[in-house]
Amino acid sequence: MPEPTSTAVITSPRGSGIREVARLAGVSIATVSRVFNDASAVNPDTRRRVLERAAALGYEPSSLGRNLARGRSELLGLIVPDVSFPLYGQMISGIEDVLGQRGMSILLASSHDDADRELAASRHLLRHAVDGGIVINSQTDAALPSPRGVNWVHVSPEHGIWPCRVELDNVAGGGLAALELLRAGRRHAAYIGAPGRESAERERGFAAGLRRDDLAYRRAQGDYTELSGTQAADRLLEEFPALDAFFVAGDLMAAGVLRALHLRGLRVPDDVAVVGFDDAVLASLLYPRLTTIRQPAYEMGAAAARLSLQLLAGLRAEPVTFPPELVRRESTGPP
Amino acid sequence: MPEPTSTAVITSPRGSGIREVARLAGVSIATVSRVFNDASAVNPDTRRRVLERAAALGYEPSSLGRNLARGRSELLGLIVPDVSFPLYGQMISGIEDVLGQRGMSILLASSHDDADRELAASRHLLRHAVDGGIVINSQTDAALPSPRGVNWVHVSPEHGIWPCRVELDNVAGGGLAALELLRAGRRHAAYIGAPGRESAERERGFAAGLRRDDLAYRRAQGDYTELSGTQAADRLLEEFPALDAFFVAGDLMAAGVLRALHLRGLRVPDDVAVVGFDDAVLASLLYPRLTTIRQPAYEMGAAAARLSLQLLAGLRAEPVTFPPELVRRESTGPP
């Protein structure tokens, strides 16, 4: 059969293999290359012979040379505040599953919730020629560098200014928390928030939900850590001993609230009901099991990966907003 | 100044930029390439002019072309059972910090604790021409493919046969748990284990520690899930109501044991003491806070990354064994 001469040649970065495969299979290097690039014009017998010889030699084609020819690295950059935070781990799982089906891989970098480190991470990823990028919980309000038209998709960014983004409807989440505490017959609620846009939106929805029953609420500020939850609950209970419900902006802070209640001898949910936010692994392991507002983190990651693929294909991508979901457990009691 | 002709030329994968930078800076493409490769022979004024023009054009050099010339991708493959498991997240953080200091990046793939998927993940990473790889909790006893001499470093592998590995001294961890329960005055202990080598080693150390005081122990098997911990504790307490201590092979199972004790009205640690294993985020958030045997996950990840760099540099790498550490909290009470 004729051997076309215009095929991209695969080069293994350490220079081994393809010549040997071609020699043993009795074909040209270009034919070996076409077999591994899935070009359709290779005779089936030839293809089989090449694959057998390649397997016998332990030859693995390198995507480095192939992708250079194609102008694609098949890598997607991912900037995440901290990979050891379970909510982000679930998002990464969702991203990875979608990309894996397309043969693409995640190149990982951490931002530690810092705008400067986020920018540095983006430059680092771009030096590896990523085809696109996803940023979880971006803290910057400046656009990340975008050479070669690389697109960045944002998941739950602090600033809602990015055209390609995936986020939760936090206002609706706050509304669900209010409804649940009202359902449990509570009239004296408090909100424990944290800095940033997400907490402010959760509070807005919570306040609106309580207002429909003409109820006000107390408030205190934490920082998403367990300790800050304990301290905020202690302050509120000192000043307002009649409180019978807490809505807390994150499950880790809610763990701290539960501890404050245990140490004061208050029963949950009999004396005080608690609703958290996130539903990563933690909530269901607390004692009592925590009622919380679920962020579909895996699904949000998967949606961000699909947006990235759309942009890579040159398609338009619209922002995606996920609805939150109430997960009722022991800390608000039975209906 | 003379322009050498033997310098590797940076090519941007979408073909943009370097020519334009060279033209605007009034230098050759090879000079632009040398500036971005940090070759020392570029005149400082020329270097500054090139960097200014590159910044103005938003030009980012691609490592794809550069690394192809160098024969290195600067990528390290990482195979992890599940990124959303906090212990692995901490290991990834340690790996990432060490590699980041060397300008290298992590390419991520998941194995879901399955030997076949681990092999598929390794092939996927190799197609991206990783320079080396790290496998967390490998389940296979067959060597992963190693074209071009790529080395795989194992962290806590199920089979202790790999020359390059990082692991915890699990036997010593079991010994620490026995000592802690003896210190707390317990004489009727049980072990709740799970399948696999790590649990078997933890039990071996636990048994040896108790034997020094001529004590036997009861045992039951779980599977590292919370529910299996609750069920195993229930079975043991039905049969042996006099039990006053549990050593549990993982913190998640220990959360289930605490729940079983709460539901039976048994006080922790007054009636029953509990020691877990891992000390990822969870242990300190349980009620009561869980005494546990700490795996230094971040440090183990960092050690694996350093082993990988040694192997890449052509140096020998010896296995690294980390000592475990007792973290005493509320579930075994004050000394």
From TrEMBL, chains A, B:
Taxonomic superkingdom: Bacteria
PANTHER family according to UniProt: HTH-TYPE TRANSCRIPTIONAL REGULATOR GALS (PTHR30146:SF109), LACI-RELATED TRANSCRIPTIONAL REPRESSOR (PTHR30146)
Coiled-coil annotated residue ranges, if any: none
Domain HTH lacI-type: from-to ranges: 16-70
Keywords for the protein's UniProt record, in alphabetical order: DNA-binding, Transcription, Transcription regulation
Listed SUPFAM superfamilies: lambda repressor-like DNA-binding domains, Periplasmic binding protein-like I
Keyword S-adenosyl-L-methionine applies: no
Cited InterPro entries: HTH_LacI, LacI/GalR-like_sensor, Lambda_DNA-bd_dom_sf, Peripla_BP_I
Segments traversing the membrane: none
Name of protein: LacI family transcriptional regulator
Xref: PROSITE patterns: HTH_LACI_2
Lineage of the organism: Bacteria, Thermotogati, Deinococcota, Deinococci, Deinococcales
